[in-house]
């Protein structure tokens, strides 16, 4: 019987999130012979069939239920238990995102299956599959050999695979699956929209990073202005979060988001390893720091040594003209 890889799709603003398209690429690399099934859960899902028929997978399985209208660990996990019984996949693949990180340990324990988390590449050697993942804040890469006989769960690190392109001739079969979800003991009372552009952050082409060097609201306003005139968005270090003026949801690094923009401008950020692990996939890094020995300059393509309160207003003045 053919292997089945089920990809847990993430759906944001009526569109598949880029991490899900990255999961499709990873699934293709993982086992070419397997059936790749894209699972989309929600309620009243907007189906753009012409677009969906171009996703490069074998099947799309849609699970709709009123309790799945918003992500809640308990309801999604219960729905997935029911999906697992019906689809019997060999591999469950999802992003190492808030959703993937929240669901996968629970499911691994429930199904008594191994979980390989935060994987950034695969190797095949003598017919054996092994996974590579960063450990100790990215200082080492751990290689884990997979037991081929067992089903397993895997979460992949964002931005390590390119997003799967849509193909006109792909034409996956699309069908609905019914699930039963026991009455949950948790309920979502409401959602408060934060001002921070968290969704845009992961896919942004230009990110201006704010560190502890911004010092205060005035410094943060400069960062926001710079991002605005460049058509980019703002990410922050933990140092900036600790100042109490930036939202932790836009923190970049080991305990924050991993990004891979075309340009990352790190302002008043020292370049601690825990921060760098989330930003060094940027194509170009520009650092602004008053300390010429700051470690950020070791990874930067361009560096400006100086006070950001002098440099950023000058950049804004210059670039605002264009
Ligand atoms: P600092 O290290 O204080 O650096 C501030 C920099 O600003 C300095 O280099 C200084 O020269 C410069 N500066 C000051 N004033 C100016 C000015 N006027 N103009 C120009 N430059 C100026 N950190 C993260 O960012 N993300 C994470 O996900 C993360 N996870 C962590 C997980 C663990 C388990 C641990 C232990 C730590 C983690 N950290 C994380 C914290 C990390 O180790 C650093 O403490 C943090 O990144 C420092 O932030 P910073 O560079 O903004 O501040």
TrEMBL record:
Residue ranges of the TM segments: none
Domain Electron transfer flavoprotein alpha/beta-subunit N-terminal: residue ranges: 5-193
Cofactor note: Binds 1 FAD per dimer.
Chain positions recorded as FAD binding sites: 212, 237-238, 251-255, 268-275, 289
Cofactor or coenzyme needed: FAD
Gene Ontology terms describing biological process: fatty acid beta-oxidation using acyl-CoA dehydrogenase
Gene3D superfamilies linked to this entry: HUPs (3.40.50.620), TPP-binding domain (3.40.50.1220)
InterPro entries: DHS-like_NAD/FAD-binding_dom, ETF_a/b_N, ETF_a/FixB, ETF_asu_C, Rossmann-like_a/b/a_fold
One Pfam short name: ETF_alpha
UniProt keyword annotations, A-Z: FAD, Flavoprotein
Gene Ontology molecular function: any one: flavin adenine dinucleotide binding
Family affiliation: Belongs to the ETF alpha-subunit/FixB family.
PANTHER family for this protein: ELECTRON TRANSFER FLAVOPROTEIN ALPHA (PTHR43153), ELECTRON TRANSFER FLAVOPROTEIN SUBUNIT ALPHA, MITOCHONDRIAL (PTHR43153:SF1)
Protein name per the record: Electron transfer flavoprotein subunit alpha/FixB family protein
Protein's organism: Niallia alba
Lineage: Bacteria, Bacillati, Bacillota, Bacilli, Bacillales
